[in-house]
Recover the amino acids of this structure.
């Protein structure tokens, strides 16, 4: 007897084919292609089998339908098993492919470091702002008036020879000192004044310890009753923080047109502790900055009553400070951007 027109007889063969093809699948992509061909959509092999139903005698349809459904269910189950297996296999392959050996020594990462002059400047700004100083940044091009005349250095004053000047025009020049900022501040602000003015300055000067462009840090304090001992007290704190705890200062008489009295400030040699060495040339002292009590004429030039107010000012060379602090013997090393040098100077 020919059952189901022989249709049911196709099912075991298809089952065998499915089993064989599933077993040969290599990856999830192939699995889905397989699903399309056999299980999904109107054109799949299973759907085709279902469509055959209409060619059967009505009494045969129920059995046939059951068999096809059973085959479909079985195929879907096998598909799910295979999917799980292939996904696991692909995951393992991916782990293998993306494996990182965390025991390999790391490539060293070179970080940059701040330039020694920047380090010194930042440190001083920290120290002085901690004492209540405000920062004033002036301009690098100044008029003759602000750089010299208002600072009690008129045209024919011999002190102009102390600073060989780059003139841009008869009236304008590259500032030779951050002291020019003192005048700007005192013109605009009434006492109490407590400012710190870092910046570049320019002088026609060029040897192992001088550069045509260098950096200064100006300090100015104006209030009632300010004296030279306020300056000394403050500088003691400064040198201890910059050069080390035990460092002390001494004042030597000097001359600047805009301060009276004027002083050169030395600090005890931080290399030998004051015994005398090559750094301090056997004297036990190192010159670190110029300073003084603000000349009454300068106060008056800015409309500040010199009977009521007094002040002190100081100017520190930042390259010089960096050279002393880091033991650099030629100022050019600070401007040549040689990384072999600069990398050593990061503390
Ligand atoms: N301006 C002086 C210089 O450049 C330094 C200085 C500043 C001296 C303030 C006294 C007061 O040499």
């Amino acid at each position: 007897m020919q059952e189901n027109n022989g249709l049911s007889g196709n099912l075991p063969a298809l089952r065998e084919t499915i089993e064989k093809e599933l077993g040969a699948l290599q990856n999830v992509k192939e699995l889905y292609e397989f699903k399309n061909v056999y299980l999904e959509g109107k054109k799949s092999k299973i759907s085709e089998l279902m469509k055959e139903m209409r060619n059967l005698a009505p009494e045969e349809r129920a059995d046939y339908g059951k068999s096809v459904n059973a085959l479909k269910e079985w195929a879907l189950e096998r598909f799910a098993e295979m999917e799980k297996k292939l996904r696991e296999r692909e995951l393992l392959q991916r782990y293998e492919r993306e494996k990182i050996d965390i025991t390999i020594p790391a490539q060293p990462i070179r970080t940059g470091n701040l330039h020694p002059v920047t380090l010194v400047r930042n440190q001083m700004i920290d120290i002085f702002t901690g004492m209540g100083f405000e920062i004033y940044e002036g301009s690098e091009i100044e008029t003759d008036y602000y750089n010299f005349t208002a600072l009690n250095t008129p045209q024919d004053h011999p002190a102009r020879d102390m600073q060989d000047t780059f003139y841009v025009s008869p009236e304008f020049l590259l500032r030779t000192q951050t002291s020019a900022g003192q005048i700007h501040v005192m013109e605009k602000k009434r006492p109490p004044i407590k400012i710190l003015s870092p910046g570049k300055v320019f002088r026609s000067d060029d040897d192992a310890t001088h550069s045509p462009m260098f950096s200064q840090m100006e300090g100015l304090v104006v209030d009632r009753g300010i004296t030279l001992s306020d300056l000394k007290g403050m500088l003691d704190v400064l040198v201890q923080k910059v050069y080390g705890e035990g460092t002390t200062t001494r004042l030597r008489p000097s001359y600047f047109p805009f301060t009276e009295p004027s002083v050169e400030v030395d600090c005890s040699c931080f290399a030998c502790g004051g015994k005398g060495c090559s750094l301090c040339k056997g004297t036990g002292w190192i010159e670190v900055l110029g300073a003084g009590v603000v000349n009454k004429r300068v106060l008056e030039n800015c409309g500040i009553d010199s009977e009521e107010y007094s002040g002190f000012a100081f100017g520190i060379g930042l390259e010089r400070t960096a050279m002393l602090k880091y033991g650099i013997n030629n100022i050019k090393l600070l401007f040549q951007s040689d990384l072999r040098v600069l990398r050593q100077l990061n503390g």
Summary: The chain has a mean pLDDT of 91. The pocket of phenylalanine is lined by residues 177, 179, 218, 256, 259, 290-292, 313-315 (CB under 6 Å).
